[in-house]
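Tutorial, part two.
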Amino acid sequence: MSHRPQQLGSVLQRAIQSVIERGFSDPRIQGVITVTNVRVAPDLKNAIVGVTVIPTENEKLTLHGLRSAGGYIRRQAAELVALHQLPQFEFRIDEQVKKEAGVLAAIHKAVAELDPDESDDDASPDSSSNTPTTNEDVT
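Running the prediction step on this input gives:
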């Protein structure tokens, strides 16, 4: 099995992010856009580009703008990547980041509910104690 699609995906991710960071004149493309992953098909003809948009209120409009600018992004990325023919890009919102953020928020909430004083202790400078941090004094 070839690693070529994964390698190309990694190279394309950096190239597409670079093109997006340069900016667009399209007013639909707003916010902070991050290319989270690029999955290239085994035949190297198509690539799914996962993106996140902050703030999330701009997701749909920005995704529409990115899809419209897909040809431009592909041409600009082709200048950065030494490849005879680049795959066609299909832009999608990466929902995985939202799921991860939700899980982290739930973990933080659960920890806070278990011991509400512990989260305050971590932030305070007085949380240091005189107890040894090594097992030297333990008999």
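Confidence is low (pLDDT under 50) at residues 133-139. In part three we will examine how such features are distributed along the chain.
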